[in-house]
Each structure stands twice: as C-alpha cells, then as structure tokens.
Amino acid sequence: MTPTLVRHHLRQSGSPGSYGSIAPADPCTRARDWAEIQERMLVPLYEAVYDRMDVGPHTKLLGLGCGSGLALLIAAARGAQVCGVDLDEQRLDLARERLAPDPAREARASATRATVLACGGPERTADPGGGAFNIVTAFHPVGCVSSIEGLTASLVTAAGLTERGSPVVLGGWGPVERCATASVLRVAQRLADPLRTAGGWRPSGRDDLEELAGRVGLRPDGSGRVACPFGYGDLPSAVRGLLSTGLFDAALEVTDQAQVEKELSEALHPHQRPDGTVWMPNVFRYLIART
Which GO terms describe its biological process (predicted)? Predict the structure, then answer.
C-alpha cells in the first residue's frame, strides 16, 4: 500500500453529510463507523510516533488493539512489517481488507515475518521461526482489552515477543483542560453510574501511562504530546463516531440507546459550527518505554 493510497483511505472516511440519521447499530455497522468516521482522528498521533521512532523497512511492529488497521496501514506504507491483535472480530475483518497483501509487501514478508491479524492476545502473533518484533504500540488500550489487568497482561506478553531494549509506545488522552471532547465524554461517565463498568471513559491522570509501564516492568524513555482534533461532517456523524469507540458501552448497559444519543447530541451542540460541522480540539499523549 503506497502513501497515496493511504491518503485515499483518509479522504473516503467521514465525509460531510455521509450519515443522515442516527440509528441503533449492529456490531458490523459500528465497526464500519469506527473505520470510516472515528479511527482517522488519531492519525496525527500515529504519524508523530512513527516519525520519532523512525518506522520504516527495518521495523517489525506489533499493534495491540489495532482496530480496523489504519495505524498498521500507515506503518506498512512506510515499509514496516506489521502484525496486530484486537478483541473485535468485525474491526479485524476491516483491517484484513485494508492490509490485503500487495506483491511488494508479500515478497518482503516472505523473507521476514508474515502479516498476522488475530483476534485475541499478542501470543497469537508469535513467530514459530523465532523472529522478534522491534516495536510495540498500544494506541487504543480500551479497544484492545476491557480492563487494566487485561492490558497489563497483554503488554507483558508483547514485551516477551520483542528484541531486548525495544520500544513499547503507550497512547492516551492528554490533560482534560486541553481536550474539548472531555466534556462530551462526561456524558458516558455520568450515564454509566452507578455501574461504572470497565470500558467506559474516565479523565486521564497525569502519570497514567507511566504507572502502566511500571506495572509491566518497562523503563520510561521519553514522551510527547500531539494535537488530535476530532472533526465531523455533521452532528449524526459525530454521534455515530463517538458511539463506535466503545466508551459509551457502559452507559448503554444502564439506559436505552435513544437516551444516550439524545444526551450525546446535546453535549455536542456547543462544538457545532454554523456550517453544521463539529470540531473539538484535543491533545493526546504518548509514552515511550523500553523492554
């Protein structure tokens, strides 16, 4: 996949007016909402990390919570060998479509590590030939596992599949005061009470990523912040995109979808522009840790 084709994927995603109404979504529809509307919002984060880590033909990358594969696609366009895991089979089906082997990548893979996209944990990507990854990314921890314990276990396993001293990159929300979407996600937090199940949203702590790295036995080795604005063609697209993240799942367990959509739409109104588009500036953070 060339960089030009990657840009084509981005242009085709979430175009204004492409979603006229909001309706309850089955898992396949929600996975496509994620791929076509929401996943692209973190492209600046992916690019910043890949630039800093010099991702290219020498890279063997394992993506945890890889979703529908956009971050992997961008890495592959830089020449990297990529593998990914997620717990959402519908998203993985879309990732397989995006990362269907082209002749050039297939030739490179035959000499190194073939692309694996697996539903489950990172152990599903272990190479019988003994080849090791040299970078692990966890851009979407919530999309990969449903609890901090599960994420910790996945990171421990992934670290064991890497070359010694390899970077593990953890992504997360930046300071609440610099994330306009935080006010919208508080709807998910409020509606989920008192259940407060795993997978919902909570404000990020200053040292969340460092604490997670410490639990896994990783050594912090730098961090950064990246502007990742959330922009949508219209209000229905914004609602569908945000619902596709899974951050509202806990709220949907304790109230009906219509109520969640109503309150989410109301929370989005202050961010709607006169032309109908929705725009929310955000800052995301990443931590580089070493195995």
Answer: methylation
